[in-house]
Design the sequence.
């Protein structure tokens, strides 16, 4: 009887060991599969922002990035199965088409199940593993590392003949006969007349933008005004430091900024030169339409605040202080300067989602990449 009970005890112990070992392997494989799906979804959302937002084809950069990234994350030392049909683009809860969903498999149907270790003793040779993840390129409602100069958002030019200057009010504050019109982000007109991070011809990605110091109160597309960044005091040293370095303070939209006295051309040039020296090898690859740099991300990529030209001119003509209301942020890659002119490219920019900053409009230029499922 002792031998019988000892034998039964060994069988129970063996079964428990099998459960512990194979279930532990299953949980490890499941976790690794989830890592592969997460990585693939994030890579796909990143390609939406930095490669081509509108190319959802099987051979496009979004699908290929999602697949190759997921496959590079092994599950129990073997590659997961991810086919083009396993990468989909579900709508978000707000109706935006900005999500990438990736499904990964190690299953019998895909001819790559996970083998068990002790399970074959009980007739269980393999187990099926799968995982899914969804990431999105959300409109960002805040940015970091903004620079202390701002350019006007674009507008609809109605002047006859067109003069390239925003003119909506006369010196009494009344509307001009052929008043220019401004459409803020989030309104239907902004998609047609405002800045867009899409590729040309419909968007501005990769377009050269030359920044020139503004003079007086004229509002012209690439003329910048200096503004006082939060966290410091008015003055050239603080202004120059914020150009050369990253100010980690998060900035949202709808903020009223105070204009710096003077055009700060000298301080701007010094700050730009210092910033160029931080990443001298970075360049814009026009073929691949992206910034190439040994640093990731390059410090020469930063957001430029866009101000509301209507609000600014309306304030001047009605006797209020000339204040700059920030409506969005433009991604900019600094290529250099020539004299007092700063030139570079309009590029995608990663912002952040700040829960206290309010929602961002759907056509916001900066995007935030994050897992949502």
Sequence:
């Amino acid at each position: 009887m002792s031998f019988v009970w000892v034998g039964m005890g060994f069988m129970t112990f063996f079964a428990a060991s099998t459960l512990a070992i194979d279930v532990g392997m299953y949980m490890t494989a499941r976790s690794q599969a989830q890592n592969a799906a997460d990585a693939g979804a994030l890579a796909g959302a990143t390609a939406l922002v930095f490669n081509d937002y509108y190319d959802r084809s099987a051979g496009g950069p979004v699908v290929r990035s999602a697949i190759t990234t997921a496959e590079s994350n092994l599950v129990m030392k073997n590659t997961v199965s991810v086919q083009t049909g396993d990468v989909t683009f579900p709508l978000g809860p707000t109706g935006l088409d900005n999500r990438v969903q990736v499904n990964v498999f190690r299953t019998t149907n895909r001819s790559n199940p996970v083998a068990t270790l002790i399970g074959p003793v009980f007739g269980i040779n393999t187990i099926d593993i799968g995982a899914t993840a969804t990431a999105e390129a959300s409109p960002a409602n805040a940015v970091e590392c903004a620079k202390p100069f701002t350019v006007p958002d674009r507008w609809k030019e109605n002047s006859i003949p067109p003069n390239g200057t925003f003119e909506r009010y006369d010196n009494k504050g009344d509307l001009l006969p052929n008043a220019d019109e401004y459409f803020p982000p989030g309104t239907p007109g902004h998609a047609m007349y405002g800045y867009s991070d899409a590729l040309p011809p419909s968007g501005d990605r990769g377009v050269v933008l030359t920044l020139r110091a503004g003079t007086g109160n004229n509002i012209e597309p690439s003329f910048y005004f200096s503004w006082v960044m939060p966290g410091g005091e008015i003055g050239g040293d603080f202004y120059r430091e914020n150009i050369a370095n990253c100010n980690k303070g998060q900035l949202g939209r709808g903020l009223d900024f105070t204009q710096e006295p003077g055009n700060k051309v000298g301080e701007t040039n010094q700050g730009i030169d210092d910033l160029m020296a931080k990443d001298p090898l970075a360049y814009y690859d026009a073929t691949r339409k992206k910034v190439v740099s040994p640093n990731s991300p390059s410090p020469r990529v930063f957001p430029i605040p866009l101000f509301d030209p209507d609000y600014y001119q309306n304030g001047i003509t009605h006797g209020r202080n000339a204040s700059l209301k920030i409506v969005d942020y433009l991604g900019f890659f600094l290529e250099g300067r020539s004299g007092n002119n700063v030139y570079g490219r309009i590029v995608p920019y990663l912002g952040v989602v700040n829960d206290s900053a309010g929602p961002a409009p759907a056509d916001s230029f900066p995007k935030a990449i994050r897992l949502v499922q």
